[in-house]
């Protein structure tokens, strides 16, 4: 038996939905409606319904979803936007591309997500918005964060790029803030066959501005009349039909991810490593299964030697990246410390029982060996 445990397996997901995609692509090729059209409209309606909001706007990628939201809100030069320091660089990048300044905040040592206290500590007179990132597919206390944002008079935007299907209490990711911004990069829980993204919102006026901005600022009444300075960020119909086919599988795939994460959490219980905590009231989508691991480099080498592939998401906090150091205003100790401890374990919907067992067993053995060596050195 092949004991290699891959970090992810997109092939199995593709195999499951390929017949539906083949049929949809054949119909699309016959129609030649490759940009916009019924395929995009159908997916936008389905995604809005899934997220529990009236509006979804398909765009080119998740970074554009964030940038277009900021542009549509009029947030730019002279404004600051609070961003957690441990996120994928695109969150901060979108703020800079919109002309605003990212204001980095630290995170909870338990969930590695933004908290109201950390958000409030980052607020200045120039703060216009906060981007709450549902990192790894987990959601923070959205009720408390929304109350804090309302008190400060700032806009709350959800970066839900990793949180398709996650929920806070009874609300889906993306449905709580002014907008929810999604990436459909192929490796995401709901992934296209290339780059794609979406913005969801209950604000119909804002949705209209984003629709215009994604299409060169074009007027809805005239194809050749442009009312805004926009960009070109339209969702391809080819990607829309893939996403529609996958959407019917998303809940079952998410359940599988949650089951795997639960087994990891149980396997690491009472040991020196632990899976990142889930906020009470949150139901994570587990895009990633992230553990905080002592002696990470050694543990990762031992896992690799046993055929278990792992990754580090993300080894360098945003405020330590060269282009963004100028925006750093001080130390962010939790983000800085945990960047040296986080380790992403394999997780994907079609992971077999034996693959999960291999990861659990190998992690326990590696941690026990590492702990024993430390005790010998200390003794």
Q: Topology, pairings included?
A:
Blueprint: H1 10-31, H2 38-51, E1 55-59, H3 62-72, E2 80-84, H4 90-97, E3 101-105, H5 116-122, E4 127-133, H6 142-152, E5 155-159, E6 167-168, E7 171-172, E8 179-183, E9 197-201, H7 204-213, H8 237-247, H9 250-268, E10 274-275, E11 282-283, E12 289-292, H10 296-305, H11 333-338, E13 342-345, H12 353-378
Parallel strand pairs: 2-3, 2-4, 4-5, 5-8
Antiparallel strand pairs: 1-9, 6-7, 6-11, 8-9, 10-12, 12-13
Helix pairs in contact: 1-8, 2-8, 3-4, 3-7, 9-12, 10-12
Note down, in words, how this protein is organized.
The chain has 379 residues and is an alpha/beta fold. Strand 2 (80-84), helix 4 (90-97) and strand 3 (101-105) form a beta-alpha-beta unit. It has 12 helices and 13 strands. The strands form 3 sheets. A 7-stranded mixed beta sheet has the order 1-9-8-5-4-2-3, with helices on both faces. A 3-stranded antiparallel beta sheet has the order 7-6-11, with no helix packed on it. A 3-stranded antiparallel beta sheet has the order 10-12-13, with helices on one face. The protein folds into 2 domains: 10-247, Type I PLP-dependent aspartate aminotransferase-like (Major domain) (Aspartate Aminotransferase, domain 2); 250-378, Alpha-Beta Complex (Aspartate Aminotransferase, domain 1), CATH 3.90.1150.
